[in-house]
Specification:
Elements lengths: L15 H11 L2 H14 L3 E3 L14 H7 L2 H5 L5 H6 L19 H11 L4 H12 L11 H11 L5 H11 L12 H10 L6 H12 L1 H5 L3 H8 L3 H12 L8 H6 L9 E6 L2 E6 L7 E3 L1 H9 L3 H38 L1 H6 L10 H8 L3 H8 L3 E4 L2 E4 L7 E3 L5 E3 H14 L8 H10 L6 H10 L5 H7 L1
Parallel strand pairs: 2-5
Antiparallel strand pairs: 1-4, 2-3, 5-6, 7-8
Helix pairs in contact: 1-20, 6-7, 7-9, 8-9, 10-11, 14-24, 17-19, 19-20, 22-23
Length: 469
């Protein structure tokens, strides 16, 4: 029988304007300016406020008027002696012009050109270009798939971690070999698989990286020798073979020549004694306005379709200016809350004074959602008295030391990096020895935590570091 049932349930829907607002939150100053100028091309109501400045005497000089005044005889007449022109063809050694350097190609742009040659759909290409832009300067991909899928879904169109992983497979086929790898082991594996001729050593290395990489990272060498059916001498040869492979898909010398984008801070933190002043840099809603001309024409328009179009564009422009203002106000609130929690760090600029702080701490202080805090701090930089810092890097989890105090895990990573830099490279510390050294410094961490932080810092195991020495 057909019957009707009435039920009550709560559902949560996100409006298109909310998605646009979240996208706006994710932009840094330069991206926001580009977005607003693109909107200006589509929305006649939105216009940029021109900065008026007084022109100097040279600015007022009319070159066109001079060109119109001159006739052919004046252009043709030349009283410069021939010998002076001939002499001008030669330079003294001290006056030799500098030879311009060829602009090196960024590996990301080269990877995008290679991606265009593959037979991909527009959707796949869009995701692939986004993943290439997310690569670190080393060529590795450090963000996890869930984060990438979430960020891409908000910025362009909905996707899933599974789709991201499938597109990542195409990027792994590009040059340089190993680009897009999520770890050093995966980078090595991609390099080995690309070899045409695979001898016994290469096959054993592939077997190790495919099936026993966790054992290799955790230095379970005796188990590895049994699983790979190798004696100690053969196993040492295998480790030596792996250590000679490049750790990074993009070499350091190539990276040093690649063009570097100048960081434009989104926030400036100024200190005057014990007081701090926070300035949100970049784009403000006052830099854009509604067109006065169009507002006058709308009052005179009698065509209903045209009037509806103008009203929708006016509402869109108004909302966009409101969103920019809300973005800047939210960044100001977040920066104030961060400054309150990290006061000691901002006073000295010492990373060891960084306190544990997660997104929820700031979300509770400013009354915003955790995802909103994440977007407003991602890709945002702050200019401070001790340099430019990435706001997102200030968020770290805490670990309890032997005195019972909770300290930032970034402090421990910094201490670990410091210890490894000062070690005897011919006899480097094992992970277990590093645990003891950190414990003497007051940091109580497990060996697998040390191994995890070492991987995050792209530092190989002790046996590999000894071979490199």
């Amino acid at each position: 029988m057909i019957s009707q049932h009435q039920s009550q349930q709560q559902t949560q829907k996100i409006l298109p304007q909310q998605i646009q607002l979240l996208n706006l939150f994710q932009y840094n100053s330069q991206e926001l300016l580009l977005h607003l100028r693109q909107e200006m091309e589509q929305n006649p109501y939105l216009e940029e406020v021109a900065e008026h400045k007084e022109e100097g005497p040279c600015d007022k000089y009319d070159l066109q008027a001079e060109a119109e005044y001159k006739d052919w005889d004046e252009y043709a007449y030349n009283d410069v002696p021939d010998y002076k022109q001939e002499y001008a063809n030669y330079f003294n050694e001290s006056d030799m012009p500098e030879r311009p350097l060829a602009a090196p190609a960024d590996f990301r742009e080269e990877a995008k050109r290679q991606l265009d040659l593959l037979n991909l759909t527009d959707r796949q290409t869009a995701i692939g270009n986004y993943l290439i832009d997310c690569l670190e300067d080393t060529g590795l991909l450090e963000k996890d798939l869930d984060t990438l899928a979430d960020d891409f879904s908000f910025s362009q169109f909905l996707t899933t971690p599974e789709e991201i992983e499938s597109i990542l497979g195409f990027i792994h086929t590009l040059e340089p070999v190993g680009i897009g790898a999520r770890s050093i082991g995966e980078s090595w594996l991609l390099q080995l698989r690309s070899r045409t001729h695979k001898n016994l050593m290469v096959r054993k290395a592939i077997d190790l990286l495919e099936n026993y990489y966790e054992d290799f990272k955790n230095r379970r060498f005796e188990k590895l020798m049994d699983k790979l059916e190798l004696v100690e001498v053969e196993f040492r040869e295998l480790i030596s073979f792996l250590s000679k492979m490049p750790m990074r898909p993009v070499a350091n010398d190539v990276h040093s020549l690649s063009p570097k984008n100048n960081i434009v801070p989104d926030v400036e933190i100024l200190r005057n004694g014990d007081d701090y002043t926070i300035i949100v840099c970049g784009i403000h809603s006052e830099q854009f306005r509604l067109s006065d001309t169009l507002q006058e024409s709308m009052d005179q328009t009698k065509d209903k379709a045209a009037l509806q179009y103008l009203r929708s564009k006016m509402q869109s422009a108004n909302w966009l200016l409101y969103a920019v203002k809300q973005r800047n106000e939210s960044i100001m609130k977040i920066t104030k809350a961060i400054l309150q929690m990290q006061r000691a760090y901002f006073e000295e600029g010492d990373i060891n004074l960084l306190q544990p702080m997660v997104l929820k701490h700031i979300a509770d202080k400013v009354g915003l959602d955790i995802s909103t805090i994440s977007r407003l701090t991602s890709n945002k930089y702050a200019q401070t008295p001790f340099g430019t810092i990435h706001l997102k890097e200030l968020f770290t989890e805490g670990i309890e030391n032997k005195e019972g105090e909770v300290i930032s895990n970034r402090v421990i990573r910094h201490a670990l990096e410091e210890v490894i830099e000062r070690e005897d490279k011919r006899n480097p510390y094992t992970d277990q020895q590093l645990v003891g050294i950190l414990l003497n410094r007051g940091y109580k961490v497990a060996r697998r935590t040390v191994a995890k932080y070492r991987d995050l810092l792209h530092i190989p195991v002790a046996q590999v570091r000894a071979i490199w020495a």
